[in-house]
Recover the amino acids of this structure.
């Protein structure tokens, strides 16, 4: 290989309650990438057991639901590889190897672990602690060059680069001797001139697409928020969407005419941002239409737009999840295609490390 093949990898956990934030902040942004390079989209079920095992029925249902959301949002199984992580054994195998590459100190700095483990760190699973190593394995089992993620995953992507760098460095001699290296695209005196894993680039969605809670404009829209009114779920029907928009927290002022006027107004900023993202407009454009108007006028417009944009997708999700055969066939095909890439990568990794091959 003379250069890394441009390749996108991303994933969503099947933990239930997919919402507008997942759609606008992640999946909808993946759609255009399918025409630019090779794209692999994973339903990360191995990650979904790090914070406790859901029931098997819940896990299966959520795995199919995320798959349905991908497809309903416009991820095309003819253009992209769509599969669930546990079906490709190489993820778990590479994650173990990365457990032995990454350092305790690196993982101890991960802010998401601190948030998720909360006060009772001693009772968190080892898997939750090692979560970022599995994420690095997801990406590097395909030697993916680009990963679209939200702000909150930036630190994990940096860790992925650290793991790749250490592996490339520690095994530089073997990589070269076995002829498995790729010329380092960013050579410098400290790093080897031939590397095995790429230093994956994040494709971070701008802050404009951070979708916040409908009840508190300073908190991210989240599946774990106890209030269902805080989020628009991708399974909500038109009535539920309208009700949630109506009840969304606001402030007493009319909408400003300039984006500057949204500062210090987190709820107004969020609703304008959601409108802009759904309409494919900038916040400026939204405010040029609605500036000076009360929320009593803006909210019905937002609610109509949300229903118009989301219902074709939620209808399609309902159709796809009504029976399992279509989704399962897509996942099976995806798992085969994903394995065809990851298996040879792991074969090389085993040779580089020196695992004896006796068969
Ligand atoms: N940790 C990611 C999240 O919670 C999900 C994920 C797992 C992922 N593996 C990945 C995202 C690989 C991008 C690439 O959003």
């Amino acid at each position: 290989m003379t250069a890394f093949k441009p390749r996108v990898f991303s994933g969503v956990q099947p933990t239930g309650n997919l919402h507008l934030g997942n759609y606008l902040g992640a999946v909808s942004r993946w759609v255009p990438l399918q025409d630019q390079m090779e794209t692999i989209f994973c339903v990360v079920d191995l990650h979904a057991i790090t914070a406790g095992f859901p029931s098997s029925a819940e896990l299966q249902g959520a795995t199919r639901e995320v798959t349905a959301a991908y497809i309903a949002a416009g991820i095309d199984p003819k253009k992209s590889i769509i599969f669930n992580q546990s079906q490709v054994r190489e993820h778990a195998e590479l994650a173990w190897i990365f457990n032995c590459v990454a350092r305790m100190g690196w993982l101890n700095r991960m802010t998401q672990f601190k948030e998720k483990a909360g006060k009772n760190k001693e009772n968190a699973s080892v898997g939750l602690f090692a979560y970022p190593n599995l994420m690095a394995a997801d990406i590097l089992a395909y030697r993916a060059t680009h990963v679209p993620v939200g702000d909150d995953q930036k630190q994990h992507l940096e860790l992925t680069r650290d793991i790749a760098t250490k592996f490339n460095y520690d095994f530089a001699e073997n990589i070269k001797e076995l002829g498995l290296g790729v010329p380092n695209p960013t050579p410098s005196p400290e790093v080897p001139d031939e590397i095995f894993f790429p230093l994956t680039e994040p494709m971070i969605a701008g802050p404009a697409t951070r979708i916040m809670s409908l009840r508190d404009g300073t908190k991210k829209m989240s599946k774990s928020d106890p209030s269902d009114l805080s989020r628009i779920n991708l399974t909500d029907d038109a009535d539920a969407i309208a009700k949630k928009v109506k009840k969304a927290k606001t402030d007493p002022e009319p909408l400003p005419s300039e984006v500057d006027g949204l500062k210090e107004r987190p709820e107004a900023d969020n609703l304008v941002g959601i409108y802009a993202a759904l309409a494919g407009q900038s916040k400026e454009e939204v405010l040029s239409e609605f500036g000076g108007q009360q929320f009593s006028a803006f909210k019905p417009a937002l609610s109509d737009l949300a229903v118009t944009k989301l219902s074709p997708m939620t209808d399609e999700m309902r159709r796809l999840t009504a029976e399992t055969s279509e989704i399962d066939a897509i996942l099976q095909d995806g798992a085969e295609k994903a394995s065809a890439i990851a298996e040879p990568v792991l074969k090389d990794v085993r040779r580089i490390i020196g695992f004896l091959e006796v068969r």
User: Anything to note?
Assistant: The chain has two domains: 7-208+324-353, 228-320. The chain has a mean pLDDT of 94. The two ends are 26 Å apart (CA to CA).
